[in-house]
């Protein structure tokens, strides 16, 4: 597998990696004919996320090379992959293109950042071959649907401390979505904190 990302799309790829790192500790890469899939799952396997970058996203995209019958699939440590795209601001200012190569023969995922003034940064990441990561669920068994703009959801959770381990989402009788969390003060007694964020009141 070999792909080349240029311009502002390098930052988009980095933002996707940062988003996935909030969910899982491992990144699953699967080159497909219809694009490069980046996936992750949390440790309890209760949350799954996937980004699929179509071939048009890349300046060059090759899922597999002959005589490979199928593209290789692998997983890498999220922390290792995230180190490549550590600073999103620096990516936009200094990186002109990013080349990603997956070679089963060398057991390495090679990421090269071609920067301004002829500087090239090369990252050789170890990987493990794996099966395709798929979320298995039946949408028919999910009677409720919540859909909102990302900006609205960000505003809803922004009052909570980033140190919180979890935030509970619920729906009140008036069909208002409610975010809740429990905090402990210095005395050890639980403090109840609730944020109410109204959403368009369509039936859920």
UniProtKB/TrEMBL annotation:
<dbReference type="InterPro" id="IPR007268">
    <property type="entry name" value="Rad9/Ddc1"/>
</dbReference>
<keyword id="KW-0597">Phosphoprotein</keyword>
<dbReference type="GO" id="GO:0006281">
    <property type="term" value="P:DNA repair"/>
</dbReference>
<dbReference type="InterPro" id="IPR046938">
    <property type="entry name" value="DNA_clamp_sf"/>
</dbReference>
<keyword id="KW-0227">DNA damage</keyword>
<protein>
    <recommendedName>
        <fullName>Cell cycle checkpoint control protein RAD9A</fullName>
        <ecNumber>3.1.11.2</ecNumber>
    </recommendedName>
</protein>
<keyword id="KW-0539">Nucleus</keyword>
<keyword id="KW-0540">Nuclease</keyword>
<comment type="function">
    <text>Component of the 9-1-1 cell-cycle checkpoint response complex that plays a major role in DNA repair. The 9-1-1 complex is recruited to DNA lesion upon damage by the RAD17-replication factor C (RFC) clamp loader complex. Acts then as a sliding clamp platform on DNA for several proteins involved in long-patch base excision repair (LP-BER).</text>
</comment>
<dbReference type="GO" id="GO:0031573">
    <property type="term" value="P:mitotic intra-S DNA damage checkpoint signaling"/>
</dbReference>
<dbReference type="GO" id="GO:0030896">
    <property type="term" value="C:checkpoint clamp complex"/>
</dbReference>
<dbReference type="GO" id="GO:0071479">
    <property type="term" value="P:cellular response to ionizing radiation"/>
</dbReference>
<dbReference type="GO" id="GO:0008311">
    <property type="term" value="F:double-stranded DNA 3'-5' DNA exonuclease activity"/>
</dbReference>
<comment type="similarity">
    <text>Belongs to the rad9 family.</text>
</comment>
<keyword id="KW-0378">Hydrolase</keyword>
<dbReference type="GO" id="GO:0000076">
    <property type="term" value="P:DNA replication checkpoint signaling"/>
</dbReference>
<keyword id="KW-0269">Exonuclease</keyword>
<dbReference type="Pfam" id="PF04139">
    <property type="entry name" value="Rad9"/>
</dbReference>
